[in-house]
Amino acid sequence: MRGGGRDPTRTTLVQEGIKMMNRLVSTIVTALFLMLPSHAAELPGPGIRVVTGYAPGGSSDLIARLIANKLTETTGRAFIVENRPGAAGTLALSHVAESAPDGRTIMLGENGALVTARAVIANLRHDPQRDLAPITLAARQTVIATVRPGYVADFATLVARVRANPGKVNYGSVGVGNPIHLFGEDLARRTSAEMTHIPYRGGGPLMTAMLAGEVDMTFFSVAVALPQITSGKLVPLAVLDKARHPLLPEVPPASDTVPGFEGSFWFGFHAPAATPPDLIEALNKAIVSVLQLPDFKGSLEAQGFRVEGTTPGAYKAFLADETKRWLEVARNAGIVPQ
Question: pLDDT per residue over 86-131, tens digit each?
Fold first, then answer.
């Protein structure tokens, strides 16, 4: 080697040695990291209460029990449904908001308690967006506009009748400010028309009134309406989804006639607001995992539920959007909290 110049072969060997050392260090660091204990929270035990704001027998109770039973099977924890009905589901909301934030008490809520109750009940003790931590939007139920037989044949004709006869077309709901009431108010607003609202004390009396011809039209979940549609006692006009429903593929979306007219009944899990994020993550993972089990997902869909299973962040954004939209509908309709 002359003039102190570098030996290319030696330089290459040094560079290769450095690369090998870097790879070795990286491998050792990775191995040590994997040996460290995991800090991801596990589900608390031995039991977790799933609180719902409605009595046994309704959709909220049904889906709460279906999911709780499957979680019990798959997690080794006992998920126990607890019914706390009253005040449009807000008694259950307050109970969960005031529970210890240890992951042992969660709520399966729905849009009545979490959103529209605020339109009719003044001075609620708790704000769902402030006092509850979202876990996941679990599922939705498709809403369908129905009429009594012989009234109209399609949704476009219904809209035309509403516009031509201000205040003469009536619709039933299960009470002032509930989602069904607000679906009707939203339809009236979007069609620049007036409809007459007739509130009933629950889904049973509303169905009885529809079958007796006391009410011109209303909104049911597909699951509730389907037996009466199949028997010819109710006429389906439109679904409040962007797409047709697989159980009623001949029924078009309402938004084909009235752009933007959409809505659903939905169900989501919450924990007390101060619940640690790692517990929220563990609960989300457990619930979403069972919702995505093919057989279980299929059984929920067969009972009229559309499975969601979102992240906590996506559910938080969804809840904010729903709250803004439906409280605005209530204000425009002149509904004042009492």
Answer: 998 999 999 999 999 999 999 999 999 999 999 999 999 999 999 9
Q: Where do the domains of the chain lie, and which CATH numbers do they carry?
A: 47-140+265-332 (3.40.190.150), 142-256 (3.40.190.10)
Distance (Å, whole) CA 53 – CA 89: 4
Alpha helices, DSSP H only, in the chain?
Answer: 8-35, 59-75, 90-97, 111-114, 128-131, 155-164, 179-190, 203-211, 222-230, 277-291, 294-302, 312-332
Query: How many CB atoms neighbour CB 186 within 10 A?
Result: 23
Q: What is the pLDDT of residues 161-192, one digit of tens each?
A: 999 999 999 999 999 999 999 999 999 999 99
Is the previous residue joined to 46 through a cis bond, with omega within 30 degrees of 0?
A: yes
Q: Estimate to the nearest angstrom the gap between the alpha carbon of 83 and the chain centroid.
A: 19
Q: Can you tell me the distance from the alpha carbon of 75 to that of 43, in angstroms, rounded to the nearest whole number? A: 8
- pTM (2 d.p.): 0.85
CA distance 85 to 2: 94
| DSSP state for residue 253 in the 8-state scheme | B
> Is the separation of the CB atoms in 73 and 112 below 8 Å?
no
